[in-house]
Prior knowledge:
Layout: H1 4-17, E1 22-30, E2 35-42, H2 49-55, H3 71-81, E3 85-91, E4 95-103, H4 115-125, E5 130-136, E6 141-145, H5 146-153, H6 161-180
Parallel strand pairs: 1-5
Antiparallel strand pairs: 1-2, 2-4, 3-4, 5-6
Helix pairs in contact: 1-3, 1-4, 4-6
Bound molecules: adenosine-5'-triphosphate (ATP) and magnesium ion (MG).
Amino acid sequence: MKEISMHILDIVMNSIKAEASLIELFIEDSIKNNWLKIVIKDNGIGMTDEMVKQVTDPFFTTRTTRRVGLGIPMLKENCEMCNGYLKIKSVLHEGTTIECCFERDNIDRVPLGNMGDTIITIINSLKNCELLYKHSTDGNSFTLSTEEIRFILDGGSINENAVLIWIKEYVNENIESILNI
Ligand SMILES: Nc1ncnc2c1ncn2[C@@H]1O[C@H](COP(=O)(O)OP(=O)(O)OP(=O)(O)O)[C@@H](O)[C@H]1O
Ligand SMILES: [Mg+2]
């Protein structure tokens, strides 16, 4: 089974395809509540109510190259297998929010995976779009904003190798430190 970060990548790719200019990713890793909650919010093209209903059905996709869209149904199945849920809220021309949750200590819950790698993969796929990522544990959190990084770089490219390596380390070190406090 996939690591959770691979699912996150899938869902964020949907937001990029939906021409979002801002994607917000919130991860809440709570031992106290015994959940791992993920919220992905975009301001892309959105979906009709009918699409939202169909989207968890693996035989529905707007892609013409392949009949079967699996990103959302697979994530939903994995959440439900771990006593969790997946909810979609979407408004046409306004955007989409996907919230999903895993029971943290469930035997079937796969690891989060490498978020540093996932974030730089996302950044390399962004076009005219910013990512705001917030990761929290019970008492601590950190955020990463591509808009802020671009501002600091003052015209330099966020896709430079040195910058991406820095971002990857920033993410992985922060996740480790907020877990250990
Ligand atoms: N954030 C979003 N904004 C607008 N439409 C979306 C969004 N996420 C999903 N959709 C719609 O829901 C469909 C199903 O998404 P899903 O990720 O399950 O499959 P897919 O992207 O079509 O294929 P796959 O993920 O397997 O490559 C998409 O084809 C798209 O039409
Ligand atoms: Mg998809």
